[in-house]
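Quick board copy: two proteins, each given as sequence then tokens.
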Amino acid sequence: MNEGAINFPTFEVGGWRWARYVYSGLFDNDKKLKDYSKEEWHNLIYAKMKLKNQDEKYPKSGDYEGILPRFKRTFLKKDSRDITGKNAIRFKEVVTQGVCPECKGGRLNPTILSCKIREKNIAACCAMQIDELHDFIKDIHEPSIEPLTDATIKQLDGLLAIGLAYLSLDRETSTLSGGESQRVKLIRHLGSSLTDLTYVFDEPSVGLHTSDVHKLNELLIKLRDKGNTVLIVEHDPDVIAIADYIVDMGIGAGRDRGNIVYCGDLAGLKASKTLTEAYLSTKLEMKNLYRKRNGVSLSLSDITLHNLRSVSVEIPPTYNDRDNGSCRVGKKFPDSGINKEIC
């Protein structure tokens, strides 16, 4: 132990995790690991206990944990994206991930997986796209479980309403985009009986088709009408339009920016002569200049990840009009009093 037997960052000699083993009173710290008894190996790797004869240098807080339970709690139960630096490099060397051969990724025991409705168990249902699962549940006509199916359909209706029909319920939260994750949470909280809460959403409309934004707005209004405060950081004009109170921050970004340039309702914003007002009042036009195809295409074949299933795509290369340092399209906001040009 004194020579650094635990070969993983944060367990190195002198570290606080190393101290929990060296000063536990359970080991001869100069003894080779190959000479450990079965009891010593158990204590080092698996044990969880309250210590009785620990050294006075042993950390004051926490019970003793062997390397494996400590490693599981500290690293395996975390999202792997939260493990960074040298820990991430070593983590990838000692940990492999794969589909469980017993449950085939269902994460349930054989008894549960053996229960089926129309040849589908709960894992198979969770693997279906939400729109397909909605139709499957809706086609179950059994009076004894009607309250359950009605509640499930109501939740699925909400997910369909905000453009998430392509997701499946077995997707890990870490694989969702920020907008997708927020919209899933929105549906969950709409079904909650809690009120007088404050919700903060950061651009929940990201990734939504324009035709679905009004559905998102309806859900945000319902959340407010339940007796909650809803704060939304947004740039979509349709979402801004439903706000009871608007705070416009600007102008620009950086250390000296972030000033409040307007507070009030939508009618006042439209008369405020701010950069946001200029954007809202500018008529958007269809693009009439296009990049030209050039060179060899980038081909991606048989892409299978998350909701993609054996998708192939060819991306043509293009000339970039910015390559020569000039902007392709420039436009000033008229009558805004702001000398800003966007490209």
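And the next:
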Amino acid sequence: MTGDGRGAENLDVDDPGTPDSTEPVKAKKKKRPLWVELPILIGVALVLTFVIQTFIARVFVIPSESMEQTLHGCAGCTGDRVLVDRVVYYFRDPEPGDVVVFERPATWDQNGSVNRSGNAVVAWFQDIGSQFGLAEPSEDDVVKRVIAVGGQTVECCDERNRVLVNGEPLDEPYFAKATPDATQQEFGKITVPEGMLFVLGDNRNNSRDSRSQGGGGVNGFVPVDNVIGKARAIILPPSRWQGVGDHDPQALSAPAWQSGIPVGVGIAAAWPTLWLGRRVRGMLTRGRPTASR
């Protein structure tokens, strides 16, 4: 008995030699074998690839010479592999000068079947390879340059054999002529409806485009909704690494004051943006609780 009359057995005394039963016991995590992890890694890679190819970027093979000299491609040779940006047109529509990849409109002629194996399994792998620019693409994917957009009129040609948009000649340094004295195909004036594009190949005399597809005229337009993305860069072969130009062919026909709008707007917007940023920062600082001392 203790001095206070209580039994020693009733005292709450911790025994340092006894482990605490409430402490969780950490079990060693067993590592998965390779044959289990490998299918998981492949599955994750396929899902990420699908997401990237569908929403962000994709690689395309240039299958023809219609975009020479900007993009190389010809029958029986290795065409350029081009990285196509799918994000840019989430925020704006295609503009004159953009090199775009788009799904062949229903009004356009079909160029014939793509070279695919008769073996269903091999053909499936060829279709998968085309998603990475490793195999010939589907005939339904086409690459051209935007010349005119909805609301504009386009025709060819003036006395210097230049395409006209809204009556003004285009500046087209990318236009590759087959021979020094070659002339491009003439076509009558036509107005591009809203939501449509008028596209041409840079190799103007070896390109089937809005001038002739579907018999030309309204059948040659490309719906904006058919556009897959904007060609940004040539990624293969290594000797061809470079960006894909988007020179605006209508730039020289724009008034001088209009060409200065982007710079002017940027300068004008800088001051209110800076002022707003300071106000927001000040409000956050004033609303932050002070530390007790």
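Board note added afterward: The CA atoms of residues 173 and 217 lie 25 Å apart.
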